[in-house]
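User:
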Amino acid sequence: MINSSVIISGEASETDSDDDNCKVKDMTTSTSIQAAIVTGEDSESDDENPGSIASAVSVLTQSAQEFTKSGLSDQHKSDSLLHKKLRECNDQLCTDLDAFSQSVITQAGKNLTAIDQELLKSQNTLQTAVTSLRALHLNSAMIKEKLQTILSSKFLSNIK
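Assistant: Predicted structure:
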């Protein structure tokens, strides 16, 4: 979840009790720094100094990167056999999960292709059946018409 700051326009607080309510994210647990909260009184002018803000952010980012680099190199130096085995097992687990997910996705793709082919065959069969049924309907309508013509005509002469 991303922590975001809310900026409220107006004058900063005059007491130090508000400083206790502000919490700053620990730099040692985060590799990316989005913002830094500087407690204290705000300047009385409306001018912002973007240069000082940018330089402060760059210093914080640089120190976090240096900590990350030095922390990782120190960590690998003091690894025990257990840590190395755990890292190898984690790498193997990642490889196995990747292979498993690839095989599942490949099999699902093959199944979808087969289902798609069957659906296309069914669609073709249905289209042929619809065409045949329309022709049958037209033929039956013509037969009905001719039958009514035959039945309505007087093929036997009147006897008097």
